[in-house]
């Protein structure tokens, strides 16, 4: 893929830009195998799961710069000036085609971009998410509630301009921090969840929920894990760090009883709606979701109880020291006749994955696969299927 922003030095986020995709994938696969070398033997690795190299991102996270009259949507340069990346080639077409209209909305509603150096202005970020149906969710991250009246006044015009826009919210983020959002979410439309059909299920995503960034690859990821759990003969699964329930709902659709554990109430609300969609579908099992800390073994065992399979998909920091306690707790809770015999680790950070695998000497890798969620960068999503030694 060629990118004019990269060539001109305006944006260097895609560090592998310009490298032919097949070479990127082979190099990333080799790097991941080397990193996990002694822990995941060569013979268990499957072929990597590829992605489209362009047009795959379902979410545009845009820092707003410039002025209300001439906003930039993209990133800030080293001097804090806005760099416009509306034509970023990673965005899905459903995003790319509406970004100019979003910029015009910023102008019409007279929303002054936040100036990081002066700590003045209001509009920090626009986050736009696309469903494969073409429907959209928009989150405006504002410094204060001050501009909300103008946003509400101009919202009907925006909705008329973007007929596929289903969900709009404002996030209030008063702090001067690099984080993407603050604690207060103000819904601005009646619908507060975007429906994202994926394989046999629908994921319902709120503005504060995690959604895997590459819809086609996420669908393949969930299908792969469901196949593994099915092949292992598990009838129950616990999905830790479940977000809006991708792994749990796919397993439930395949007839495996599922429980999901997640800290975000917004995500659990969406996952629970996904479970309701499956109720009554022939062949589907039940799924339920609990707001709890997945790193707290006692909370997980209380929420999930006995389970034959566990899926973990933590943030980049990994699972840390509580993992062995957690696995022991789940195994102890399990029915001795059908103990927890399957663990799937889906990781977006091979470094913490290696640390966590090293802390699990009683579990052995049976299969592993690089899933290329993030083309043009060296970021890697890695799946490992484990069974007891
Ligand atoms: C990498 S995302 C995975 C989400 C989901 N498995 C998916 O495929 O969309 C990690 C998730 O862990 C959640 N999380 C972070 N810390 C947590 C904790 N201590 N307990 C439970 N969930 C947590 C985040 O809110 C986020 O939804």
TrEMBL record:
The UniProt record lists the keyword Cell membrane: no
One family name in Pfam for this protein: tRNA_U5-meth_tr
Binding site for S-adenosyl-L-methionine: 212, 241, 262, 313
Record key words, sorted: Methyltransferase, S-adenosyl-L-methionine, Transferase
One MF term in the entry's GO annotations: rRNA (uridine-C5-)-methyltransferase activity
Family: Belongs to the class I-like SAM-binding methyltransferase superfamily. RNA M5U methyltransferase family.
GO biological process entries: rRNA base methylation
UniProt protein name: 23S rRNA (Uracil(747)-C(5))-methyltransferase
Catalytic-site annotation from UniProt: 348 (nucleophile)
């Amino acid at each position: 893929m060629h990118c004019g922003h990269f060539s001109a030095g305006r944006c260097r986020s895609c560090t592998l830009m310009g490298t032919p995709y097949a070479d990127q994938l082979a190099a990333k696969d080799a790097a991941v195998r080397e990193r996990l070398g002694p822990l995941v033997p060569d013979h268990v690795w499957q072929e990597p799961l590829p992605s489209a190299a362009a047009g795959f991102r379902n979410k545009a996270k845009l820092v707003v710069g410039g002025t209300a009259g001439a906003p930039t949507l993209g990133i800030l340069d080293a001097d804090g000036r806005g760099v416009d990346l509306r034509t970023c080639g990673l965005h899905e077409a459903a995003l790319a085609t509406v970004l100019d209209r979003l910029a015009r909305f910023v102008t019409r509603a007279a929303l002054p971009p936040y100036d990081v150096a002066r700590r003045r202005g209001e509009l920090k970020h626009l986050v736009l998410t696309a469903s494969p149906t073409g429907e959209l969710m928009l989150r405006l991250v504002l410094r204060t509630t001050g501009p909300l009246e103008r946003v509400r006044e101009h919202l009907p015009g925006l909705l008329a301009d973007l007929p596929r826009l289903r969900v709009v919210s404002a996030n209030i983020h008063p702090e001067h921090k690099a984080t993407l959002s603050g604690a207060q979410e103000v819904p601005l439309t009646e619908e507060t969840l975007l429906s994202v059909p994926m394989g046999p299920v629908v994921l319902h995503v709120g503005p504060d929920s995690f959604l895997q960034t590459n819809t086609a690859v996420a669908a393949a990821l969930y299908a792969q894990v469901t196949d593994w759990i099915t092949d292992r003969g598990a009838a129950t699964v616990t999905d830790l760090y479940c977000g809006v329930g991708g792994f749990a709902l796919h397993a439930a659709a395949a007839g495996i009883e599922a429980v999901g554990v997640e800290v975000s109430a917004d995500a659990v609300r969406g996952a629970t709606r996904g479970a309701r969609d499956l109720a009554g579908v022939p062949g589907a099992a039940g799924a339920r979701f609990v707001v709890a800390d997945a790193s707290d073994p006692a909370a997980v065992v209380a929420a999930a109880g006995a389970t034959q399979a566990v899926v973990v998909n933590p943030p980049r920091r990994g699972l840390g020291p509580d993992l062995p306690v957690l696995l022991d707790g789940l195994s102890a809770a399990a029915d001795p006749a059908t103990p927890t015999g399957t663990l799937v680790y889906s990781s977006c950070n091979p470094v913490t994955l290696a640390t966590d695998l090293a802390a699990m000497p009683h579990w052995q890798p049976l299969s592993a696969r690089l899933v290329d969620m993030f083309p043009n960068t060296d970021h890697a999503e890695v799946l490992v299927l484990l069974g007891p030694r």
